[in-house]
Amino acid sequence: MTKRKIAMLINPASGGGKGAKIAPIAARRLRERGLEVTELTGGSAQESLKLAEAAVREGADGLVACGGDGTLNLALQAIAETEIPLGIIPVGTGNDNARFLKIPLKDPAAAADVIADGRMRELDCGHVETSDGTSRYFLGVMSVGFDSQVTERANDMTWPQGQARYLVAMVAELSVFKPVAFKIDIDGTKADQTAMLVAIGNGAYYGGGMKVCPDAVQDDGALEMTVLSAVSKFKFVRSFPSVFKGTHVAEPHVIQHRFQNATIDAIGQVAYADGERIGPVPAHVSVKKSGVHVYAPTTA
Questions:
Q1: What does the pLDDT average to over 283-293?
Q2: Mean pLDDT of 41-61
Q3: Which of 254, 294, 278, 251 is nearest to 111 (CA)?
Q4: Could you give the angle at the alpha carbon of 273 between the alpha carbons of 83 and 129, nearest 5°?
Q5: Lowest-confidence region among 20-24, 51-55, 118-122, 151-155
Q6: Does the pTM exceed 0.90?
Q7: Do residues 47 and 60 lie in contact, with contact meaning Cβ atoms separated by under 8 Å?
Q8: What domains sit in the chain, N to C, each tagged with a CATH number?
């Protein structure tokens, strides 16, 4: 019987260096389960993507991202809209996509077992094109506005780690942030809005467990947009904890839309997706129905 060939894209720096320790555990488990594993580590994101794309061209039966959501997003670029399945060994500080898919977050051997078991889900993915010509797929959440500015700030910080870093960056950004005048086109209908942020979810989570798009479904052929209208900073801070449970959508200043195609524009704003900087708006966002196959528990 021919062994399944798995290419594992590894980010050794993920999770504050945990990637280098966890990758061998996951690779060993996959080999114990009878899979052939090739480990890939690039010196940069661009080099890692080239390695992943080459592995797919050369016949890999699956591509596994061993790292955080950024590593997963990188792997997605190599296999989106193909038949090659994507596997996840969560190592990052956020792991929002793994959380949504119910991949074990703290047990790399158990996460590897999900891949070895071979159960797959056919999921949608988002696709975004920004004004600088960048074209990129995303699996979880894309954001513009306050949260993307916070992510820009958090990505420049080396301390603290995990969710705490995002919270520290949020407090710092809140002191200087002003509501944004967004121009939005949703499936051909204009919905311009002065808002704190616009989040577009194929998945529910971002920022290390914040359920910003709680009604997002990853296989319904649509994306979920959450718009937080302009509010006072006091009201924003007071209601912020509700985002971890997804109950913020019950607030009157939160607007939701479900769509297939949208364009978002605002002066001086940058789009982020899966925690990665994509590019300046205007950005066109669309859903790619059944655009990715993912190794995941079928009950997720």
A1: 98
A2: 93
A3: 294
A4: 75
A5: 151-155
A6: yes
A7: no
A8: 5-118 (3.40.50.10330), 128-290 (2.60.200.40)
